[in-house]
Amino acid sequence: MTQRYQIEQLWRQYKYEVLWHDQNSYNKIRETMKQNPTYGDIASLISYALTLKPTEGSIINAYDHMWGYFKKIRSSSENEFQKSLKYQFQQHKIDETYLLEFLKSMACFYNVDYIKQSSIIKNLK
Predict the structure, then answer these.
(1) C-beta atoms surrounding 65 within 10 Å
(2) What sequence ranges are listed for the domain DUF1722 (predicted)?
(3) 100 pLDDT exceeds 90?
(4) Residue 64's closest CA among 33, 85, 92?
């Protein structure tokens, strides 16, 4: 396994968790990936991003990105439900865990490995 492959796998695993925390960190890592980073470079940037407190906007942005994986396969009732969850979150009636649990259940139901293997989903308790 090459170091570049390991770096890409690390980024693939943490991409949505970084986006959940901070769009700027996500963008910085994307730009860094275009260069010739070391594994440590990317691991450090990821670690820093995960120390940042997610905002409502960053959570919704990441949720929408992840939901995009279901755009062509989801039912209309699933789409309405995800909209309802997002609205309830924005109204502070539910916390972010409900959004993640829903994405996890959809990823398992439709066997979307990319989402299932994302750290933000894998680390749900």
Answers:
(1) 14
(2) 15-121
(3) yes
(4) 85
60 near 91, Cβ under 8 Å?
no
Cα 109 to Cα 43: distance, rounded to the nearest angstrom: 31
For residue 17, what are its two tokens?
Answer: 């968790």
CB atoms under 10 Å from CB of 116, counted, come to 15
Mapping DSSP to helix (H, G, I), strand (E, B) and coil, where does residue 125 land?
A: coil
Q: Where are the alpha helices (DSSP H) in the chain?
A: 3-21, 23-33, 39-49, 56-67, 76-90, 96-110, 113-116, 119-122
> Does residue 1 surpass a pLDDT of 90?
no
Residue type, 124: L
Sign of CA dihedral 61, 67, 72, 77: negative
- Its pTM surpasses 0.85: yes
As a whole number of angstroms, the distance between CA 41 and CA 94 comes to 36
